[in-house]
Amino acid sequence: MQISLWMIANQLENYDVELNINEPSTVRYKSVRTKPKKDCVLLKEDGQDILLVGTGENNFIRLKNFNKEEAFELIQDIFDLYADWDEMLNKSMVNFNYKKIIDESWKIFHCPIFLLDSNSKLLAMSSQVDPNLNPEWKHLYEYGYQSVSNYNQFRHILRKQELDPNPRPLYVKNPPTTDRASFLSALVRYNNILYGRFILMEYGRKVTEGDFQNAQHLCNVIAKNMFKLDREDHKASTYSNILKMINGETVNQEAINQFLSYMNWKAEDKYRIAVVMLKEESMDPSKSTMLLIQEYLRSYLPLCPSYIINDYIVLLFNENKVLYKKSIDGCIW
Fold this sequence. Notes:
It is built from eleven helices and 13 strands. The protein is an alpha+beta fold.
């Protein structure tokens, strides 16, 4: 696995270091070397210190008062750590062992993390953390779902992230929760299919650029494996329950009730499905085009959940809340 200086820095938080990292977030290195080599971090002495030098000008990590041989072993161990982590992620996804993924990712993030599916159901959370960390963590631990209040509090912020064709993890600083704990949210998405969301809680240490990059890597590995396995064996069960029902799959009553709670809907309400397809053959049904259309629909019909399936968008109407005919007539196509 290739890693960045920021990802290396995340594993040096217990050492006396100076960070002067100036590189694009996409830059990665294959290994560490004591002589210049392409795509490798250069390790060299600077007085009593060690410099880890990346590409570009004035781009380095300084390890203060460090022996060269010990520094080399330390940095090589960090490269090995990430390689082992990447291997674990891919192997664990063969049988969807989310618990192992989250628990063994503690050594990468060193703070509370959890994984939700696209229906806000808990897949796994850090077992190293006290269940009473905060009210929402306790709720997830006890009930296995995101709380309705938390869902509604952050729904609009996180929906904007979902509409970005190439979203970076989203950092939410000092949210209006009881503990004001900041957090990082990253999408588990592949080919416009949202499989879930990874959350990192800012407890015990500050979120860094390395956390953004590590979170994105974890989500990419999970999403690609989910998409592949879902297409081969239809094993993936983390995508939207609405899409499952449209595809003729069985969804249990508990999951349906949870969805209704999030939406503040009732089972006896009248529902309708609408399918939006591109009318002009010349229009490109690319990922970005579909997300732009979905963004328009969500802005015009904020009470109607929407889902992308291949080259069309499915809208779910609750006619007790939104009049279908009036809404459709008001759309400008």
